[in-house]
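Quick question, first post here. What does this chain look like in 3D?
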Amino acid sequence: MYESLAPYLYLLVSVFYSLAIVLLSLVTLPRPGARLTLLSGVIAIPGALLTIFFEGNYWNPTRLGGLSIGIEDVATNFAAGALAWYGVALVTGSRLRVFGTRGESIRRFVILSSVCLAPFLVGIWLGLDAMSAWLVTCAITVPLLWLRRPWMLRLTAIGVPAFTLMWYAAARLPLWLFPEAARGWSTEVPWGSQVAGVPVGELVYAVSFGALWPLFTATVCDTRRLTSGETATIQSPERRS
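> Answer (accepted):
Ran it through. Tokens below.
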């Protein structure tokens, strides 16, 4: 059965999780919180371009059409970005408000993406594998964002356990249903060895992404905590001029 599904498994899983987080957000979160959760997923989509650096030295997924970067990567990055904020939205409720306009958010996205991309590419240039370069990027960027807005330490405190649990479950389910899918990860590198039924790299990625991405989204959207006494509403950047 796995052999017949292999060319489509990554596509099916990635699309399923994307649709699931959209539905889950709309059903379980207030509309502004759901909007920001899905926006966090959209912001994460360009990260699909970094997939080429992980190819071969960490995993070798089978994509529809044999492409190096496909719709599967776009869907996976969307799902990861949305999930990372979903955990924050569940805990914080309506105590966060978005102040950034669309233009400001685009500018912050470009600047912050450049800040994150620089150490990653330097790490690759110095000979680090992609996962190690990613960890260096998070180790540099996360403290910088904490220093800029110390209150966002709370976002990391929520994001790490919440996203790690959700990402572990998301990775474990298809590997439990189709154990042969583990062939997609390289067993010749430490990141590909399995722990608790998933590649250790997925757990490392979950912890690091859970630490960084809620900060990334909050910075890009200029999300701030409401002070006591303020109305707990969240305003989407799209609704501001």
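The first strand starts at residue 96 and ends at 98.
The first helix runs from residue 2 to 28.
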